[in-house]
Amino acid sequence: MKYRDFGNTGIKVSALGFGAMRLPVIGEGEQEKVDLDKAVPVIQRSLELGVNYIDSAWAYHNGTSEEAVGEAVAGRDRSSICLLYTSDAADELDGVD
Prior knowledge:
The strands form three sheets. This protein has a three-stranded parallel beta sheet, covered by helices on one side. Helix 1 crosses helix 2. The longest helix is centred in the middle third of the chain and has 13 residues. The chain is of the alpha/beta class. The protein contains three helices and seven strands; from the N terminus they run E-E-E-E-E-H-E-H-E-H. Helix content is 28%, strand content 23%.
């Protein structure tokens, strides 16, 4: 895996990241959620192969994407993993000029 400097922080980030938006899902519509039995091993394998940058958001399957990422990184050295959790800032800034 190739790594790049994350600005001047001293942190090395993998050139390839893992986007947790398109994980395996079960259910349909409002009941759709990430299939943890399938998704967690996929994320863990990416970590084993050297990926240390993971992008997730609550909006990805109503928080179950974040749950899968949490299970996948549990017990690992978190100082070596860069997690990006995005939110809908527009909701938080409603009414702010």
